[in-house]
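Dig into my protein:

:::
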Amino acid sequence: MYQISSLVGGMTLVFVNVYFVGEPGGAWTLVDTGLPGCAERIVSAAETRYGVGARPQAIVLTHGHFDHCGTARILAERWNVPIYVHRDELPYVTGQSKYPPSDPTIGGAMA
């Protein structure tokens, strides 16, 4: 985990970042949950920053790509916390819709 400010810690999981927002030892929120299979690394980092057994007040997803919400359900169930996402992203996060195909003219696999 790396320190961004006194209120924000970050963690890189393969090629995506997750963020722990809240002062160490206090209330906090997890922003994004990384790739599938990263739950234990996130829990370990959270316990290092906030204390053993710490759980966030909520999980916030910036969007529904697999690399940002890959462990959201597992962590939400483990911690018994809500997941928040913008209403426009809800169909993608819930699997009701798929994202449109990538636009090759702007680069990036998920552009």
Observations:
- The CA atoms of residues 59 and 83 lie 5 Å apart.
